[in-house]
Automatic annotation (TrEMBL):
SMART domains: Iso_dh. PANTHER family: DECARBOXYLATING DEHYDROGENASES-ISOCITRATE, ISOPROPYLMALATE, TARTRATE (PTHR11835), ISOCITRATE DEHYDROGENASE [NAD] SUBUNIT ALPHA, MITOCHONDRIAL (PTHR11835:SF34). This is Isocitrate dehydrogenase [NAD] subunit 2, mitochondrial. PROSITE patterns: IDH_IMDH. Octamer of two non-identical subunits IDH1 and IDH2. It catalyses: D-threo-isocitrate + NAD(+) = 2-oxoglutarate + CO2 + NADH. Its EC number is 1.1.1.41. GO terms for molecular function: isocitrate dehydrogenase (NAD+) activity; magnesium ion binding; NAD binding.
Length: 339
């Protein structure tokens, strides 16, 4: 917090629709008088000792400010530099990815009252990036599960459940097939559960979770789901589908020191620069950020204005069936802040 009473937060606007949706956040925050000063940084990768790295200024900014809000970063497929998102997660050791999915009144989906929280291990598993050719035509990819990273994310999940008042933690796994790797994750969960006697613990196979989640998600409302990296990646998008898609779902990448909050969707190159993007996911990510920073009053007033605007349905963006431009939707939220 600076001498002006404001907190400085790193802002990574990102690619494609990133700058447009970041503008909505900036406009709404300034209308709501949120005590935040944005520090925009560029994360275009540079080469250092033959490795792709994030510029030092960006790293210094996040390290100094502890919190960052991030727009989508475009990743080239299959070749070129490693995903910048992965690099950010590794650089700041953002070990837990928190993905809440809450039904939005006014946006009709097959289920009402969905309120799930999924926590994904964010640093290893199938995303360890260890792949090699054994012989021509045979490629091996290593799923890395360590006690250290597993315990860290599991303990975070139990603590999170306790903090937000969800009574249960459920591990999602495939320990029947990945007996050693998922087996380790599951066994560590059983151990850590003993540290949290007030939180109920159980486990479920990933395929079964998928089936049950799309059949009836409501029984998952009282649980925090925690799982290895790839399962979390897939299942969290499935959950997003239950409430209306990626335009509406926020996320937080939590580390021991720094945390980066970001929308789940990508840079949407098909609609970039046209003023058509829906900023809700980035806005809701910023609300998670405000809660994380203890600015709960600001968080709830902006959140209410967002939900009110969505429920009114008068200024919705194209992805939600409306005709509003990004800034018209943001303006409607600003009027509802004052209402
Ligand atoms: P995408 O999420 O960018 O787009 C998928 C579809 O959803 C598109 O039709 C797009 O127009 C729509 N969409 C996404 N966000 C929207 C929004 N806020 N409002 C309205 N419509 C929205 O996925 P993609 O096309 O697979 O990926 C594009 C690029 O983004 C790729 O380079 C990818 O690597 C990157 N990406 C980045 C992140 C991230 O930074 N966290 C996440 C996913 C993808």
């Amino acid at each position: 917090k600076g001498s002006d009473g404001k907190y400085t937060v790193t802002l990574i606007e990102g690619d494609g629709i990133g700058p447009e949706i970041a503008q909505s956040v900036k406009d709404i925050y300034s209308a709501a008088n949120v005590p935040i000063k944005w520090e925009p940084v560029d994360v275009t990768p540079t080469l250092k000792d033959g490795k792709t790295v994030i510029p030092d200024e960006a790293i210094d900014s996040v390290t100094r400010n502890y919190v960052a809000l991030k727009g989508p970063l475009a990743t080239p497929v299959g070749k070129g530099h490693v995903s910048l998102n992965l690099t950010l997660r590794r650089t700041f050791n953002l070990f837990a990815n928190v993905r809440p999915c809450k039904s939005i009144a006014g946006y009709k989906t097959p289920y009402d009252n969905v309120n799930t929280v999924l926590i994904r291990e964010n640093t290893e598993g199938e995303y360890s990036g260890i792949e090699h050719v054994v012989v021509d035509g045979v490629v091996q990819s290593i799923k890395l599960i360590t006690r250290e990273a597993s315990e860290r994310v599991l303990r975070f999940a139990f603590q999170y459940a306790q903090d937000v008042g969800k009574p249960k933690v459920r591990v999602v796994h495939k320990a029947t097939i990945m007996k050693m790797s998922d087996g380790l994750f599951l066994n560590l969960a059983r151990d850590i559960a003993k540290e949290y006697p007030n939180v109920e613990f159980d486990a479920e196979m990933l395929d079964n979770t998928c089936l049950k989640m799309v059949t009836d998600p409501i029984p998952y409302n009282d649980k925090v789901l925690v799982m290895p990296n790839l399962y979390g990646d897939i299942l969290s998008d499935l959950c997003a589908g239950l409430i209306g898609g990626l335009g509406l779902t926020p996320s937080g990448n939590i580390g021991d020191e720094c945390s980066i909050f970001e929308a789940v969707h990508g840079s949407a190159p098909d609609i970039a620069g046209k003023g058509l993007a829906n900023p809700t996911a980035l806005l809701l990510s910023s609300i998670m950020m405000l809660q994380h920073m203890g600015l709960t009053q600001n968080a709830s007033s902006i959140e209410q204005a967002i939900f009110k605007t969505l429920a009114e349905g008068k200024a919705l963006t194209g992805d939600l069936g409306g005709k509003a431009k990004t800034h018209e939707y943001a303006d409607a939220i600003i009027s509802n802040l004052k209402a």
